[in-house]
Amino acid sequence: MVDTTITRPLANYHSSVWGDYFLSYTPQLTEISSQEKLELEELKEKVGQMLVETPDNSTQKLVLIDTIQRLGVAYHFENEIKTSIQNIFEEFEQNKNEDNNDDLCVVALRFRLVRRQRHYMSSDVFKKFINDDGKFKETLTKDVQGLLSLYEATHLRVHREEILEEALSFTVTHLKSMSSKLDNSRKAQVSEALFQPIHTNVPRVVARKYIRIYENIVSHDDLLLKFAKLDFHILQKMHQRELSELTRWWKDLDHSNKYPYARDKLVECYFWATGVYFGPQYKRARRTLTKLIVIITITDDLYDAYATYDELVPYTDAVERCDISAMDLISSYMRPLYQVLLDYFDEMEEELTKDGKAHYVYYAKIEMNKWIKSYLKEAEWLKDGIIPKCEEYKRNATITVSNQMILITCLIVAGEFISNETFEWMINESLVAPASSLINRLKDDIIGHEHEQQREHGASFIECYMKEYRASKQEAYVEARRQIANAWKHINTDYLHATQVPTFVLEPALNLSRLVDILQEDDFTDSQNFLKDTITLLFVDSVNSTSCG
């Protein structure tokens, strides 16, 4: 029983936006017909042919690859695209001294595609567009597609690339000023890019929105559009079925009675998992990740918005032990959550043992222990009224945000062989893991700051910075955003220079950063507006309907 005499810092979260909505997606409703599968294969073959037949040294090839990626179907042609970009990059490197292409749109597009494929192309390619005074040429301000292409390219910048910093400022200024004068199709492209550039956006969201933009481009390819729509439709059905199954699991947990203090975020947790892995081969990964993120969310609310410090000490110890024998040591109301945690690890161990990968669980538990101890440290600071220095805060808070634990779990469930060296690299040496954690932490602090300070809550980066540097709230926000921009450069650096590490190892860190980057004023907690609309676009609205949000 819960001691009702204890004063608890309740958060009063709103009820679920979705409830049992996704239970209505029955296996019959979400079945993919043999006709749809056949048509998809036929269209895939034709699009693959287009890729092969378009010469690598042509502008058309760059545009085709970019379109395929934006439409969300590049996962069907990974090897073909990888080979083409390799050829494009090698040809450029061999002839770069004779490169006289002064089409900004093409130069910037090639730069972005090549860097995205992890080849280092120097940002010096943009020097030809700069005047003697170090500023971009005024003549470029009339080139909408060129500005848009350059703007998108700037988001792959690494440290000390001043030309790309200048390019970002230049393109944003001019794209904003010309937006009102553009036709509807161009205006939609510009406003979408300024709202969220491709590189920092969630690929499924990019695909869903670009399908509608592409449809309204007069020169669009009907075959490509048809393929993208059918592929999205088939994946959406698969996601709906998974959401239905997970909603059933969530209902069986009896959330409202057993975890009344916690946010009801099953669908948002699934959105997070899909943001990392959306493809058909990742069904098991999405299921495991969704369950983990549900556990994280409930645990976060337990430590943050309900339990007392004296209740949390034995609970932290129990999680570290991860053993049924610890059940009697914790408060009775905590036991259902602890059982879910034990079941989660049992299920993971059982599945990994079948694959001969049982030793992976060791890394999952190591990260779980770091994470739970960081929560207790936060609770300790709150109990003692401590506002730590910024660096001390970040050391702990980049663990509480649970990003690294999710990242290691992503590797575990990816279905690939992961060496011990790769796990150790990700945990101890990578730039992507700490950078992704910092982006998640600081963006969360910017968004949640006002809401959380309305009740008893530990200090965020904003309070720590204001206290340590005697700064205003606005100055703390500016510093947080500066550090986020730097962290993105760290991620881009690992992509270009950690060549010994396969892309599938780095991709989850990039995708987790994208997921938090797209959140607006209403965050994961208050998901009644932006996040609800995004989930509706991906999992509810048909891609063939007439409106696209």
UniProtKB/TrEMBL annotation:
Pathway annotation: Secondary metabolite biosynthesis; terpenoid biosynthesis
Record flagged with keyword Translocase: no
CDD domains: Terpene_cyclase_plant_C1
GO molecular function, one term: magnesium ion binding
InterPro entries: Isoprenoid_synthase_dom_sf, Terpene_cyclase-like_1_C, Terpene_cyclase_plant_C1, Terpene_synth_N, Terpene_synth_N_sf, Terpene_synthase-like, Terpene_synthase_metal-bd, Terpenoid_cyclase/PrenylTrfase
Terpene synthase N-terminal domain boundaries: 17-194
Domain Terpene synthase metal-binding, residue spans: 251-489
The UniProt record lists the keyword Metal-binding: yes
Keywords: Metal-binding
Cofactor names: Mg(2+)
Entry's Gene Ontology BP terms: diterpenoid biosynthetic process
Pfam families on file: Terpene_synth (PF01397), Terpene_synth_C (PF03936)
Protein name as it appears in the record: Sesquiterpene synthase
